Each structure stands twice: as C-alpha cells, then as structure tokens.
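[scheduler] slot 2 assigned
[scheduler] job type: sequence-to-structure, two independent chains
[scheduler] chain ordering preserved from manifest
[runner] begin chain α
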Amino acid sequence: MPATASPAQSSATDVAVRHDWKRSEIDALFALPFNDLLFQAASVHRAHFDPNAVQVSTLLSIKTGACPEDCKYCSQSGHYNTELEKEKLLEVARVVEEARAARDKGASRFCMGAAWRSPRDKDMPYVLDMVRQVKSLGLETCMTLGMLDPGQAEALADAGLDYYNHNLDTSPEYYGQVITTRTYNDRLSTLANVRDAGMKVCCGGIVGMGEQRDDRVGLLQQLANLPHHPESVPINMLVKIEGTPLADVDDLDPFEFVRTVAVARILMPESYVRLSAGRQEMNDEAQALCFLAGANSIFYGERLLTTDNPEASHDKQLFNRLGIHPLDLRHEASDEAHEEVIKAQVAEQQAEDAGLFYNAMAQSEGGKRPAKHVLDKDTGRPAATEH
C-alpha cells in the first residue's frame, strides 16, 4: 500500500521555506518510496535552481593536524594516531597561489580549513590577509576554523569572508557518541555569531557514523529549523580513517545517503546542497542519483582536507556524460538572485564545454570499505576530509 502523503508532501513545487519542521513530517519523507521521494526533491530543486548547474568549490587545508578536539571521525584529532603529517599555518603567499590555481581550473569558491578548536589571536592577522587576497582574485571565500566568538566573526566579515563553515555533524541525541570536547550548543553559538556578523553559513553534517535514521532526521530538523537556512549544506559520507574510533563502522546503504540528500533538498529548498566528502567511495551512478535528488554543489580537486577526492578529469567526464555544467557565480549578484539569471546562464553555458567537474566515486566491492591511510602515496602530503 502506498505511503500516506503528509502535509510536507503536498505540491512539491509549492513547498514554502519553513523553519518549523516536525520530526514526524521528516520521518514521512524518508519513508516515501524511493522514486516518489526523488521526484518530489527534483521538483523542488527545479523550482529554485537550474537543475543542470552545479556550484564548484575547492578546499585547502591551511593548518593540518594536532587538533585538540576528539571528533571520532577526524584524522586531524590529536587524540588518535592516524599517521597524519602535521603542518603549521601555511604562508599567505602559498594559499593565494593555490587559490589562483583553483580559479584557473574553474572553481568559483575557495574554502580554507584549519584544524583548530578556535583561532588564536596571533593567527588572526594572517587568516584575515588570506581572506582579502583570495577575494581579490574574484573568488568567493569560505573558511572553517573551529568555534568563533563575536569579535572573531566580525573581523572575518570585515575582511570580506563570504561563507563560514561549521557543521553540526549529527543529531543532538547522537552527538555525544561522536564528540565530547565541545557541545552542540557551542556549535549553534558559533553559527549565531557568524549570522550576526553578516556572513553566509555553510553548515551540514556527516552520515554513516553508526547513527540511525532517526539521527539523520534529527540533524536535518536542526538545520532546517535554524532561523535562516544555511546557504550551503554539505552532506558528507563518512570517510573511514585508520586510527580513528570510527574506522570499522558499518557502511551506510548508498540509497539511504541519496534519501538524505533528497530530504535536505525538500526541507531547505533555496540552499545549495553539497555532495561533499565520500565521493571517492561512490560510483558514477550513485552520484548521478544525488544530483537528481537535488545536490547542486561539489568540491573540485584531488584533495579535500586530509582525504582523497575524485580526480578533476573524471569529474569533467561525469559532468559531460550527465549533461550538467559548473555554475559561474560571477554572473550572479547574490545567492538570492540566482533565479533571475538562470535563463541567461543556461543559454550561455550550454554553448560552452566548461572544464570543472567531479568524478563519480569508485564503489568498493562487497561488505565494508576499508579505512583509509591519510597520506597521499605520490606526494607524501595529506590527502582530504569532511566539510
């Protein structure tokens, strides 16, 4: 017997931007037949975005390892022996060089991540200079530096930072099973400080950490019921790292991951939903389903923070096979203005053979995926992680 439609299911294209989602409504979405859920998510996506345009970002670790937090998924935690090569804060010139290379390859946003509990006063001048110089290249800027107090948030905003990433990771109920060194409210306070400073929010979570569906429901409820939806919502699949407590957790069903993307799209219809960490473990078909379900943002490049990412050439091939293209934010005045430029953008970009694309994740055969070593075999440098 078909699932009974909930109020959340009425007319997909008429879904209003809401901040009062009930768990029962989100449960009902997850419980829909897979085809019905994807149809509804795709309809919501088309009502707000060009369904064949994907925003492309590049992520660089500007300070790697020795983090005092105990996040059980993270190779950068100082609590675990993951054989990660620690690095001090990168020089500003090196960061600008990496940003310029990312721009030249087609990235529209450059994200910088530091393994800190929160930035130190002595590091802030360098971080602020990075923002100013990267922004001068014509790129959108994003940073993830841990917790921010109001003064730090205001300083980053004054320097021109566009986005600040600070994930909730999981539901409030499951959070204590993953992290004990900072609270859920600490994370919410940082998000509030970022909003109050006038920056845009990049906030999502990680699935496949041993949580239940109810925890995925709880995470998405928290995100969707924030006073303002995050402009960017990264949905990360856990990348299992040897030496971390979650290295041997069972794999999440790929269809459940796609469901999570689809529900995020329905709950936050105007947000960019980012297909983030874990793409290396996905095959092309799984990624295509995620794009159909409403994912319209990815990271471009061979590394994220400390884990592998699909090679750019494979991304380009996948985009070409699917007939999708990278979104050029330089033609948009703001995220809120994207509906006005869609028609002109489609006409312009359909004539182009654009060159920034993500590769489909190569799925391992049978059973669990093995946990990864975190040093790149070719370079000896950290390879990439959740963001």
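[runner] end chain α
[runner] begin chain β
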Amino acid sequence: MADRRQVLRIGALAAGAPAVLGATGAPAEAAPHRPGRPPSLVIGHRGASGYRPEHTLASYELAARMGADYIEPDLVATRDHVLVARHEPEIGGTTDVASRPEFASRRRTVVLDGMAVTGWFTHDFTLAELKTLRATERIPQVRQHNTLYDGLFEVPTFEEVLRLRERLSRELEREIGVYPETKHPTYFRGLGLGLETPLVRALRRHHLDRHDAKVFVQSFEARNLESLHDEYRLRAPLVFLTSATGGPFGDPKSYAEYLTPAGLRQLARYTDGIGPDKVQIIPRRADDTLGTPTGLVGDAHAAGLKVMPYTFRAENQFLPADYRIGTDPAAYGRAIDEQVTFLRTGIDGLFTDQADIGVLARQLAFVPA
C-alpha cells in the first residue's frame, strides 16, 4: 500500500483534485517502466467525470491535463446521423432537456436492448436541436461540486472530441489517445442510424485507422467489433467490454463464455483487448471487501489480449468495504490504494473518473517498498 512518504514524494505529479480543478495542471511524468511491459494506461472515463459533468469537452480536457493517456467518449447518433458523446441515447439525466418546454412532446418510451426506457433520446433530435441543450451532472447527489457547471457546456460531437485531442496533443507535447465506445450498436442499426460507418469515416479522416494509432474502439457487443474488423476493415485496435453477469444483446453467448481461455483465443482473432468489470479481476467477498485476484489477467495475456478494467471511482460507495473511510457514501475513500492493488495484478490500464488519482496510483504501484 502507498505510505505517506511515497505520496509526498510523487504527489506533485497528479496535483490532488482540489488543486487541479483550475484545469491548468502541468503535464504528468511518464509512468515507471515495468521490465518487459509498457506502462499501464490511465483512461479518463467519460473525461474527468469526477470533476466535471461527463462527456463534455471540459471534462475531456481536464482529464488530459491531469495526465490521462486516453479520453473516453461514448458515442450515440442524432436523427441526422451525427455521432455525439453521451453515455446513453436517453439524455434526460445528462442534459437540461426536461426543463425545455419546446421539447416536452419528444418525451416517449422506447424498447432499448429489450428494456422499456422512458425519456428523451438523441435520435429524436437533429444536431442543431441537440446543440441548444446544455449538459448537467448525472449523479448530483454524489458529485454536488459538479453541479456548479450545470448549463455551461454543450453536447459535443465526435468530430469535436477528435479536434480537441489534436489540439491538446500539440499543447501538452504528448499524444492524447481516444477510446470511443459504440453504445447500443444493434439498437441504432435497427433505426437506420448505424454507428459503424460514421465512426470509421471519422477515424480515417483523422488518420487514426492504423494498428499503431493511439485509439481503442470498444463495445459490449462482440458482433459489432467483429463487423468493424472483418467488414469495415478497421485496423485501429478493438476492445471487447464485458460485464460480470449476462451477455451481449442478442448474442446467445454469455460474457463468462467469452472470457474462458478458448473464448479469449477466439476474441484475439478480431480484438486487441478486453475491458472487464473490475470485479472480474478481483471479486468482492460476501462482506463486500476485496477478495483474491482471478486468473483472467493471465489468461487474457496468454491469448495476446490487453486487459483494461472499469470503473475506478474515489467515492466510498464505489469502493470495496475495506477501502472506505467513514460512513458518508459520497466522501472519498482509499481510492489510490485500491488502484495500486489492481495495477499490481498486471492489468494494462484502467478506467477512472478521477484521472489524477489514476496517474498517482500508477506511479506508486511500482515504487519499491
């Protein structure tokens, strides 16, 4: 575990959250090299969503300035088939659309991957209409500070995210990666708004369709990734996301089956990595404390796949019971120590809502005791 002397020695690299909220942090140092392996990646989950409303240009920029290697936009489509960054097609919880009387009639119920969902949906708005909305904090009861920024930021397009990536790469003098996720690709394909074509076109327009591009395209649907690889001939790296339960929508194969040694070898034909729920790397015990690592990292590496689990968050309610501090579910716990523990299992990266914590944990994980 990280001790106080280690934190003091390295802490300036990540500049704790309150200090970094001004969004002017200095570029982070390179991660310490592990013999025979590249450094683990810090992926800004929905940007720096612990400090700014998620999936906004402000959130992505802050993550990069905090030292994230990659920024992660989730991609959905508008009615006029433009890719925009939202966690879900339903935007009632992440924009001010519910307070906009001119869009009240757009509220409806759809069947999304077999479940009825009521709200407002990106595919019922043109891009011009969507641009009149403003982002809001998705979980204000947990991240009250983020509500300071409600109403300030637009819903960004994928094109705007890619341009931001280019600008920040020049300014910070290091290449910032992009880690887009296709959200509900089967659903959007059924609407005639397939995500694959505009995604591939955007990556090629920005010269990012290469094996060595600083890109990972991710999806919870294996068939979506297989199609991107085989039919669209996308050569940017692909990552299969998995959950601890269930399976991809419309797929008879469960996530557990995909993660067997044989399933991983099959995935390696058309993907470059997996993005499991972190409990698939180290499960929780019955008392919600952190348990013993599984063999998933070793099995995936044996198949030639990278392993980048999600999602690491600083608040107590998201941490194992033995990493919490106090009883306030929204207070910060021992998030650095949790990430250090996971990094030492050999994972190749992690998704975190607080990129500065990920950068610091990466430094501490390989400091001699």
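[runner] end chain β
[qc] chain β: The first strand starts at residue 41 and ends at 45.
[scheduler] slot 2 released
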